[in-house]
Design goal:
Elements lengths: L1 H7 L2 E6 L5 E6 L3 E4 L2 E6 L3 H9 L2 E8 L4 E12 L3 H11 L10 E14 L9 H26 L9
Antiparallel strand pairs: 1-2, 1-5, 3-4, 4-7, 5-6, 6-7
């Protein structure tokens, strides 16, 4: 589990809005806190933060794209906006350097359940090495397709540029 989280550095966090609607949001700073908890930095997550204030439970999916393996984690969440957990999390993500983004908080998930996610593609291959090789080829083709799109359309403007 730790290896997949470390390799992916991206999860999809599911919360529920105060009016009961699902909300799914990518989080690019997922890390292992300890043997029973995961965390990510709240960098641009006002919706996630509001949802957790109303209902402090979350499910996160982490998948290594090449091996098509991952995990589903669910549990109760604590939000830390200052203090030891906040400072320790920033240190872990930014390796002691100053934060490169404004961080509103640290979302700490206390794992109540964890389950493996495995692609049905494994029904057609020998092992993980073959899966990774196949997806490297597919990823290269997808990247080439997108590069051709960008050449035709031009890149999208940076939404954060001022």
């Amino acid at each position: 589990m730790r290896a997949v989280i470390q390799a992916a550095h991206l999860c999809f966090a599911a919360t529920v809005t105060p009016n009961g609607r699902p909300n799914l949001s990518p989080k690019g700073t997922i890390r292992v806190w300890d043997d029973t908890s995961l965390f990510f930095l709240d960098i641009a997550s006002p919706g996630t933060r509001a949802n957790l204030a109303a209902n402090p439970y979350m499910e996160m999916n982490v998948v290594d794209q090449l091996s098509r393996r991952g995990y589903r984690f669910a549990g109760r969440v604590d939000l830390h906006t200052e203090g030891r957990v906040f400072n320790d999390a920033l240190h872990r993500v930014f390796a002691g350097a100053p934060a490169r983004y404004p961080v509103a908080g640290v979302v700490l998930l206390h794992i109540e359940s964890a389950a493996a996610l495995v692609s049905p593609g494994y029904a057609h291959i020998r092992d993980e090495a073959e899966m990774r090789a196949d997806w490297r080829k597919r990823r290269a083709a997808l990247d080439q397709d997108f590069e051709e799109f960008l050449a035709q359309q031009g890149p999208s403007p940076n939404p954060l540029a001022t």
